[in-house]
Fold each of these.
Amino acid sequence: MAAVFPPTPMPTAPLQRPAARRPIRWAPIVLTGIALAYLALFLFVPLAAVFFEAFKKGAGFYWDAIREPDAWSAIQLTLITSAIAVPLNLVFGVAAAWAIAKFDFRGKSFLITLIDLPFSVSPVISGLIYVLIFGLQGWVGPWLSEHDIKIIFAVPGIVLATIFITFPFVARELIPLMQAQGREEEEAAAILGASGWQTLWYVTLPNVKWGLLYGVILCNARAMGEFGAVSVVSGHIRGETNTLPLHVEILYNEYAFAAAFACASLLAFLALITLAIKSIVEAGPPSPPTPLPKSGEGGVLLHKAFGLARNN
Amino acid sequence: MSIQVIGVSKRFGTFEALNGVNLDIQPGELIALLGPSGSGKTTLLRVIAGLEQPDSGRILFNGEDTTNTRVQEREVGFVFQHYALFRHMSIFENVAFGLRVRPRALRPSEAEIKRRVMVLLKLIQLDWLSDRYPHQLSGGQRQRVALARALAIEPKVLLLDEPFGALDAKVRKELRRWLRRLHDEINLTSVFVTHDQEEALEVADRVVVVNQGRIEQVGSPDEVYDHPATPFVYEFLGNVNLFEGRVHNGVADVGGGRIHAPEHRNVADAAATAYVRPHDIDIASAAGASTVEATLNHATRIGSVVRLELSRNDNGAYVEVELSRERFEHLNVATGNVVHFNTRRARVFLAENHDSDAA
């Protein structure tokens, strides 16, 4: 009547000691492998190719390609452009972020949208806007040519277009950071008697200095690498209005591949330095202590914000 | 320094944070602004500090109109609920900040700044932490640093926004005793905001009960607790039982129980509510003329008192009673027993919307 079940063997000892051999977990290995392969294919190979092509004809040729007058002028123009655009956008970015994060006013969301505009508009269109305004057929073009002021197809146009393209970077980096930090520290500073400038200098900026530095690095990278907008307004005058990216394009179109890659390697090199600084910044201490300057040590703080000195 | 708040109103959009608030604060007083969240107490504190501009009304410091004085020039010390210490500065630099940002002519020398900061750090018993950073301190320590920083500028008034709100119960108790002692030592006119009635009653000289942008009552802790001016104050300060009923010529009939309310002796007949504290209720040994019959749901011993929960047999309403341990043991009642209670002391308020007091 009663069914006879085969007795279940009692486990006398664990068949496997769990600590001795763990099963291989494939998912992380496969995923990491895919990611690395992808990076290698789309990032490391092209990057290596740039340097390989650049040095293909030897280091001497590489040096000559860079020291060639047109190339040298392009390097200078690129540096000048970012030397103007980055500080201006730094000031603008801090001012905009400060206003948006710490004060309430009408049209705030409109201002935030405006700041994003360069991100949402094609760079070529951004360049065209300046041609339409300052070009000979543009709004103020005739007046400018009467007074012998050249903006389009000249350095000022390139600088203007670069400023326009790069102005969101610092502001965009700072706004969420400042908003997250709230207003209490600023209120505390005001109650303790600090003026607006003192509050900005000693309280607000030190709190966001890593974000600020990060924004400046991104802004600079874009200022040096911008092609579209600058291409429209530059006019491609060799030795005068060619920035480094434009110069690379011209060389490439002329089948001067080695020279093109030599100049391109400069930009790539710059990107690598930027990345290196960025990772140093990101690894930086979460709240690096900055002592308040003693009497008469005014500019020390901003200097510190840009130097990477980690003094305790 | 005295502070006068005259007819201050403040709106945020459609929300009325303050509605015609008047308040006189005497020099050297320690005042608690007590109210539920959203009652406007913090807004009032911020208006006094100058962090908010009132829509109408004036603020006088020592009789002088400071409504339009800039925050920087008001010389107030302010302690924020979440401390708002400068996170990138050491404790020393935090406290020194108010002295460092002074115009050169008024700025003390470096040695003097150091001396004054160290005196303050000793006062808060944290001089051994002067090189640390805020994130390395506990909540209670941060709160004390915030206080030292506020005191460093030698303010004329000290304003504290929920100063102990973010601390755990034990630290909180310690700190509020410490604040009281500190106040007695330096005798600075001080106003603090709190939603904790116990804190307000224990620490303050006078308590200002705020509700919905208005001041409900101002008085000493005993006054507001023992003689609440409005039903709100009664309910907000301590536990209270509400008995609905009607008032006839000075006697409130709350369903069996009769409560004398001589202040309403001229009211012929009106709906009213009697407010009775749990410790003002006694359990009678037998039914009487003014007792109410109820059933004991359960009794909880909390330290030296016993808290009883009764439900009335006539309408099922819950009644909370607090007895001493001895009294409870003497009564010898158990859960489920029928008991009779009467009220020793009560306050009767006529129902709202009833313009009654024909007195």
Amino acid sequence: MSSFIAATGAEFTKTFTTRMWWVLAVVAFGYVALMAGGLAAIFGFTSSQSELPEGMSPIPGGGEPSALIYSFASSIGYVFPVLLGALAVTNEFRHRTLTPTFLATPRRGLVLGGKLVALFVMGGVFGVVGVLGSVGLGAPILAAFDLETELGASDTWAMIGRILLAMALWGVVGVALGTMVPSQVGSIVIILAFTQFVEPTLRAVTMLADWAADVGKFLPGAASDALVGASFFSVVGGGGEALEWWQGGLVLLAYAVVFAVIGYLTSWKRDIT
Amino acid sequence: MPTGVPIEFQAVTKRFGQVNAVTDLSFAVEPGRVTGFLGPNGAGKTTTLRMLLGLVAPTSGSATIGGVPYRTLERPLATVGAALEAASFHPGRSARDHLRVHAQAARIPAGRVGAVLETVGLAAYADRRVGGYSLGMRQRLGLAHALLGDPGVLVLDEPINGLDPEGIKWIRTFLRALAAEGRTVLVSSHLLSEVQQTVDEVVIIAKGRLVHRGTLADLETGSATKVVVDSPDREALAAALQASGLPFDHGRNGLVVSADDTAQVGHIAFAAGVEVSALFRQRAASGLEDSFLALVGEEGSL
């Protein structure tokens, strides 16, 4: 147990002793803040132009605009903990640092376990960064247009808690994916292509038919949105029942476990030459 | 003071696909002396060391440190210190942070980091990112990593590569001092001349097989001792040696005869009536090098 704690601590030190984590955090903050602030401004502008009937939501699918805006922390920010997690593994392969790592901790399962735990926490940290961006910019802009910020509502804070959990799980998915695809370029290309193009396309397409929607809700991004409880897709496309929030969390965790087991068996246990 | 324990290889074999990297290799390395692990590039030295350290799984056989496989050591870095290659660093991390990470993972007090940086002479550069380090500085950082746990056993792969002359002198003295303290020191090299002033014993492998083990003196008095003989009439001398049946080669300073005894060669020339202009046993250094090359084979040195 003490060697597991030591290995996990070393993974935190690894993360904080290169510049990658804060560079990614700064970009994540900027990206999420820009998108959340922009959307809040659009809502504010349109609602001030058109007179909505009393009690009607300004967004097509119903629900509060604040939830949609705040959830940008995870619904668009999730790519950052995935990248950080994947880099934590692929850097070790690329710079051949698995040699000293496995010399210090010869039981390799402990190293992988330590990385998963450390990047779970780092994912949570990125969740905080994302929420600072989405709420930090979204809420004042909503308030400026006299829209409800919902910051007093316990539902909002419960959702923020689920955002942190989702981001933490994405960090774990990143580590697991990096173990499965140890090539750094390979895993970065896969992450960017999948999160920015393949999955959005699949989610849009699977909304067209009921049977496809039943499959589409198990896509990782859809599971993550289900966990958080707000989704940009449910607004633009409607269609299909999302998973329960806890089911979404379990689906995301299942992706991480499957990837990590495959990665452990294929790359992690291999000879380090 | 940590005491050394023996390193043992027992019938270790490693196959990569169809290639036999190491075949049925058995030898022991004793504490209190410096053992040279020699062989040409590609002979299987690094693979052998990586099997000892649990990084490469042997196809068969076992490698142990004090009877225990590396992977089951209770305190690995405090038992064995290893420096395997000069490139195992994240270029964006400082030397101090690199050592801090691994000290933490191996539960070694953080105070050791500064101490080993001091020992290897990197203290002044410790907070620079490793990406800007020279090969010699990387070698020193690798050595610092090996020393982190103050281990009784040191395993160093080509530690002299890339060091400047001052660094080479320093590491030789340092390795001797570590062995004198009773530690086990195993140093690999593809050049005998690089380590012959440092090592007490040598283990030589070629093409993954053990070809020699023993002291340097053993190596010197091996069958490869040569006598150099020259004559104003080299052809007549060559004919006389041919007739005597002793194998010989044409060298720069004369004919290089595979024989132990200058008298025997002199007698052959005298009996054939050939004038001799030079007759001597080859110098020890080149004799060692020749013995080494003879053992590892010409085509082995890639």
